[in-house]
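Much of the work behind modern protein science is quiet bookkeeping, done one molecule at a time. Below is the pair of lines this work produces for a single protein:

***
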Amino acid sequence: MDFKIEIETGTANGSMTFEKQDSIINNIYLSLMIPKGTFFLNSDFGSKLHLLQRAKNTSNIEKIAKNYIEEALKWMLEAGRIKNLQINTEKEQDRLKIEVIAENNMEQVNFTTFMEVI
């Protein structure tokens, strides 16, 4: 059981609370928001999404983001924490919308965030 992370809609900023939570949303949030290589207990934990902050809004940006997300959440599939994973990206004028839908035996979790691209 984890402490609950409350995620602000739209900004994806998280605040830890002392409420208990069994949901997989914490695992998804931390896996995507911690830069890969910076977690002291496991250098493979995290994602490379931070590399896309203010990246050029090219035709490849969606594919790159999907690859980074798949790589960051791969451990959850391998560990059986999630059974199905769907990643949707949508280019907008100056940002990239990222939506992750993950499912395990008990719940379906939707996580949406935006990244500024130029």
Summary: The chain has two helices and five strands. Strands lie at 2-7, 14-21, 84-91, 95-103, 108-116.
